[in-house]
Amino acid sequence: MHNRLTQLNVKVFADGADIAGIRALRQDPIVKGFTTNPTLMRQAGISDYEAFAHEVLSVVPDLPISFEVFSDDFDEMYAQARQIASWGDNVYVKIPITNTEGASAGPLVRTLSREGVKLNVTAILTLEQVDLSMDALAGGSPAYVSVFAGRIADTGRDPVPVMTSAVAALSQEPQVELIWASPRELLNIFQADQIGCHVITVTHEMLKKLSTVGRDLEQFSLETVRMFRRDAVAAGFQLTPERAAVSALAN
Question: What's the pTM?
Answer without folding.
Answer: 0.91
